[in-house]
Each structure stands twice: as structure tokens, then as C-alpha cells.
Automatic annotation (TrEMBL):
SUPFAM superfamilies: Fe-S cluster assembly (FSCA) domain-like. This is Fe-S cluster assembly protein SufT. InterPro entries: Fe-S_Maturation_MIP18, FeS_assembly_SufT_put, FSCA_dom_sf, MIP18-like. The lineage of its organism: Bacteria, Pseudomonadati, Pseudomonadota, Gammaproteobacteria, Oceanospirillales. PANTHER family: FE-S PROTEIN MATURATION AUXILIARY FACTOR YITW (PTHR42831:SF1). Residues 90-164 form the MIP18 family-like domain. Pfam families: FeS_assembly_P.
Length: 187
């Protein structure tokens, strides 16, 4: 059973242990302490957005045990993965990233314009993600970028992830997948 199916919006949950989280909208790593009570705001993809003391935080799936749920296994790649498998992994991880305010992943929302994997002179692999936001003033860019970075870095093949936020071309509703428009009632 998917542990996120056991979580609903507004549910209060005491933290079972200290947990690293991403602050929203700043995208900075913070530690929420054991025995604190958080309120679930959204459970989508492989993350849970929670409220604690009037602020929002993102807890990754591999840390769900901090909420008393089964932790999700952190996705990774076989050491001998091909270039195609590495690119498919990156796209799969991006599909688990959500704007904390919108219940649609960033790929189906049309925010990701592309990804490029490069081998550096050191032999390391760097991923560059080119994406936009729903509006230039959207404050969630740092959170989404940090969420994507952390998930992609779960694979040992990748040592660096650069997320480039661009506004040309500007995002529009037409960039959303049909499934995303259905989810948001935009037909």
C-alpha cells in the first residue's frame, strides 16, 4: 500500500524523530524536531508538505517514517545504467516533484522545458534542468528546484544537478498535459 494514501489534508501528525525538511518557499534545509506536531497540507508524488508553527515544509518520501508511515525507498540506478536509463530516471524523478500549492507534478504542469546530462572532465555526471514557473513572481521556484535536486542526487551516477529557471517562453495553460488540465478542472 502507498504510504501517502494514508495521509489526508489537515491531518495532525506528531514527528517520531528529527527529520530534515525543505522550507517553503525558501528551499533551505531545516531540521524539524521529534515530538513536534505538524499538519499535512498536501501529500503528492513522493513528498508531503506540512505546516509547523505557521510555516510550510516539504518532507521527502524516504523520511516518511518520521511521520509514523512506511518510508519510501529512495530511487536509484544500477551502476552500469545507460544514458537512456539515466535520462528516464531524471524524468521519473521530476514527475514526483510538485509545486506545494498545486496538486500536479511539474512535468505534467508543463514547467520542465528540458534536461541535459553531461559527463564532466572529472568523469562525474551533471544534470541540467531547464524549467519555468507558472508566473515570474512565483515564490516556489527554490523549493521545486531543491526537491528535484535531492531526488535526482539519489542516484550515484549524478554528482551535480543544476536547475535553471527561465521565463522565455513564458508558461501558459496550454503547456499542461491533458491529465493535468483534468485534475485542475481546466477544460
Amino acid at each position: 500500500m502507498d504510504p501517502l494514501s494514508q495521509v489526508y489534508k489537515g491531518q495532525e501528525m506528531p514527528l517520531q524523530r528529527d527529520v530534515d525538511a525543505i522550507s517553503i518557499p525558501f528551499g533551505k534545509a531545516v531540521t524539524l524536531v521529534e515530538d513536534s506536531t505538524v499538519v499535512v497540507m498536501q501529500a503528492k508524488g513522493s513528498s508531503v508538505s506540512v505546516s509547523y508553527e505557521g510555516r510550510l515544509y516539504l518532507i521527502e518520501g524516504h523520511d516518511l517514517d518520521s511521520l509514523g508511515l512506511d518510508a519510501l525507498e529512495r530511487p536509484t540506478l544500477d551502476p552500469g545504467a545507460s544514458e537512456e536509463e539515466m535520462e528516464a530516471f531524471v524524468w521519473a524523478q521530476l514527475r514526483t516533484c510538485f509545486d506545494p500549492e498545486i496538486p500536479v507534478n511539474i512535468v505534467d504542469l508543463g514547467l520542465v522545458y528540458g534536461c541535459r546530462i553531461e559527463r564532466l572532465l572529472t568523469g562525474e555526471c551533471m544534470v541540467t534542468i531547464r524549467m519555468t514557473l507558472t508566473a515570474p513572481g512565483c515564490g516556489m521556484g527554490d523549493v521545486i528546484a531543491e526537491d528535484a535536486r535531492r531526488k535526482i542526487l539519489g542516484a550515484p551516477q549524478f554528482s551535480k544537478v543544476h536547475v535553471e529557471i527561465v521565463f522565455d517562453p513564458p508558461w501558459s495553460r496550454e503547456m499542461m498535459s491533458e491529465e493535468a488540465r483534468l485534475e485542475l478542472g481546466m477544460f
